[in-house]
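Give me structure tokens for this 106-residue protein.
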Amino acid sequence: MPQQIPKGQVSTYKLISDALNSSPRAVGQALRLNPFCPLPVPCHRVIASDLCIGGFSGSWGDSQLVADKKAKLTKEGCKFDEYYMFVSNADGNKNLFKDFQLEKSK
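Here you go.
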């Protein structure tokens, strides 16, 4: 589902888990093990529900991995403050992507 989040936008573990009828922790664990990061599955576009940048590859807080996640999002135009809190998408708004489309099973 993170592959549906457009470049320059973010969503949250919770919004993805709600769309999947799952839990935010399960989504985080799946993304942590993502062998296709950053493309075609851009897991760096997923942040925590409190709008902090959240974890990345199992790391939280002031770490190189989280700094790398912030750098990827900043390169796409997203803005964060010095405390890794989300400020805005590339278009300047603070809307979170939530229009996930589930693929139907055959």
